[in-house]
Amino acid sequence: MTKTRGAVLTRRAMASLLGLAIAGGAVAQTVDDQTLPDNTGLNIPANLQIFGKLDPNIRKATAIVNETVITGTDVDQRVALIAAANNAKLTDEDRERLRLQVLRQLIDETLQIQQAKTADIVVSKEEIDQAIGRVAKQFNKSPADFAAWLREQGSSDRSMRRQIEGELAWNRYLRKRVEPFVNVGDEEVKAIIDRLQAAKGTEEYHLAEIYLPANSDQQAQVEGQARQIIGEIQKAQAPFSYFARNYSAATTRSVGGDLGWVRAAQLPEALSAASQQMQVGQVAGPIPIPGGFSIIYLVDKRQVLTADPRDARLSLKQMTIKFPANTTQAQATARTAQFATEIRKLQGCGSVEKVGQTLNAEVVQNDTVRIRDLPGPLQDIMLKLQVGQASPPFGSPSEGVRTLVLCGRDDPVSGQLPGAEQIQNQLEQQRVNLRAQQALRDLRRDAVIDYR
């Protein structure tokens, strides 16, 4: 079992639209005779023979999927973005392995888009633009600035648009062709509610997964790939969901591998055993399961229908001191020590603004923070604080040093049973995911794929 704490992000790649723009605006012309205009200044024979054929808009294909071309450029640009997003320096071996993984993802995307079109599903440019805008916002950039950043990384937004199109088209296909045929009866829902009541006090886990399929001939190869992915997760700053979106073959890929809250008894035996040994923030794998290997990430855990102190909502004031760009480490250490001394003099939340003024500190307030939503080390600290007390200083010279002052706490009530509708929706989604996996396997099996 290996350990890491996730964070998140995105990936993708693209090729220039210039060729399409030129092709779209060109008008073919015919010449009736073999004569050449006299004003060309070129000594070109009238009766010439072309040896070979050249089309500058055609790139060498890596694969042709049911007549849809996936070029080496498509693969390279998405690889470039993955490396840039993770600030990773790829060795030649790493890059080649990542190319193979990206190629499989592009093939799946192509199959999903093609299948959606058979159901008359079209994702509009406006919808993709909106999704691109949301992604750009995560990077604190405008869509135009984000597109420019992608180009700087050796990528572009075409591959990102392609991936967004694939995810939206496939989700709509499932809603149109799969979900209407998934039914959950009232008796099934009642049985789950009864089991929840019987399981009160037992632990359940919020898990995310990366699933890698493998037949009997691929076991060693896929297990090696899984170990490489775990290594990348450990080295990277991106969250687990980022890697799930890139590498997982499960339909949960579109939601960052999120499995939601599950109990050990609901999981395959190998995954159940691993989840019970994990701490929040850990990654485990590769775990052999029927059909392949799984990598799982423990997002959180709790007890069924039992109030969890970490669900308490806090009223907080945060006081932050910033450092000038040219601050030395010694100066930062001295000011942080002064900050810690002043924190110990606080007399409840009412004195935070006054102390903040003396320190030239920024003060902000939030009344809706759950302990569960704070980083792990801060969760432990806030659980022990009394109202009016402050946390020790935390942060960095580059981002500022801060403290959290506890102004109030609303403790959680006893855990509540989920409603029948919520349980029904979860069951339906599980069955849709299963059928989606089967559908994608069928598409792969029936596809005509020409590797180049």
TrEMBL record:
Q: Where is the signal peptide?
A: 1-28
Keyword S-adenosyl-L-methionine annotated: no
Give the domain of life.
Bacteria
Keyword terms: Chaperone, Isomerase, Periplasm, Rotamase, Signal
Q: Name one Pfam family in it.
A: SurA_N
Q: Start and end of every PpiC domain?
A: 202-300
What InterPro entries does this protein's entry cite?
OMP_Chaperone_SurA (IPR050280), PPIase_dom_sf (IPR046357), PPIase_PpiC (IPR000297), SurA_N (IPR015391), Trigger_fact/SurA_dom_sf (IPR027304)
Q: Would I find Lipid biosynthesis among this entry's keywords?
A: no
Question: SUPFAM superfamilies attached here?
Answer: FKBP-like (SSF54534), Triger factor/SurA peptide-binding domain-like (SSF109998)
Give the Gene Ontology MF terms in alphabetical order: peptidyl-prolyl cis-trans isomerase activity
Q: What is this protein called?
A: Parvulin-like PPIase
